[in-house]
Structure formats: structure tokens, C-alpha cells
Amino acid sequence: MTRILTLLSMSLFLFGCQTSAPPEFGMVDWYISNGTSNRMSLDLYDKVCQKSHYRLRIAASTEAPISTCANRDGQAEVRFRRTGGISVSQNPLRNEVVNANEYLFVQ
């Protein structure tokens, strides 16, 4: 009986670790637009859900769809920086608030 209870509690614990609660205010879909003539990669941090998205790659002169957690106003709050070969002074950390279906233009 003890063995069954132990297995049951362990499986419930593991099941709880694998499920996550949906974001309080849902998700917001928006786009990052690459305004350069070269491929670009970004490190993006979702400030609402506190999740990092490392090395997002965006082809030259294109845009990429992004889905992040929404704040109470239905907007995405993100912080990002380009990665690879750019000096810190030329590549500041940017904080942005983005509406649904809006394009964030990055050069």
C-alpha cells in the first residue's frame, strides 16, 4: 500500500511539473521586422512571463511572427538586444511595448 501511495504521489508531482498555468491575460501575437540587409539574431526577454528566447534568427529584410504573454492592457512587454559581433555601445538593450499584430522594426 505504501509503495502504491509513493508511486501515485511521485506521478502527481511529475504531472504537476509538466503542466503550466496559462498566462493571466493570454498571449499577444506580433512581429519583429529585420530592417537590415543581413541575417540578424536577437536575444529577447518576455517581461510579462519572465521567459527568455535566445538567438531568434531573422532573415534579411523579412519579419518573424512572435507570440509572448500579454499584460493587463493586452500588450507585449519585451526587452531585446541584437547578438553577435556588435559592440555594446552600438547595441543598447531596448525595452519595448508592442500591441497585437504590430511590427517592431529593428536595424
Give an overview in words.
By secondary structure, the chain is α+β, with helices and mostly antiparallel strands. The protein has one domain: Sandwich (Immunoglobulin-like). It is built from one helix and seven strands, in the order αβββββββ. It has one helix at residues 2-18; strands at residues 27-34, 40-46, 51-58, 63-69, 76-82, 94-98, 103-106. The strands form two sheets. Strands 3-2-5-6 form a four-stranded antiparallel β-sheet, with no helix packed on it. The chain has a three-stranded mixed β-sheet with strand order 4-1-7, with no helix packed on it. Strand 2 and strand 3 (51-58) form a beta hairpin. 14% of the residues are buried.
| Approximate shape | globular
Could you list the spans in which at least 5 consecutive residues all have pLDDT below 50? none
What radius of gyration results from the CA coordinates?
19 Å
Report the mean per-residue pLDDT as an integer.
Answer: 84
Lateral arrangement of strands in the main beta sheet:
3-2-5-6
Per CATH, the architecture is Sandwich
The total count of strands amounts to 7
Indicate how many domains the architecture comprises.
1
Question: Between the first and last Cα atoms, what is the distance in angstroms?
Answer: 63 Å
**Portion in beta strands:** 35-45%
CATH topology: Immunoglobulin-like
Tally of helical segments: 1
The major pleated sheet works out as: 4 strands, antiparallel
What is the CATH class?
A: Mainly Beta
| Helix proportion | 10-25%
Order of helices and strands: HEEEEEEE
- Name the structural class: alpha+beta
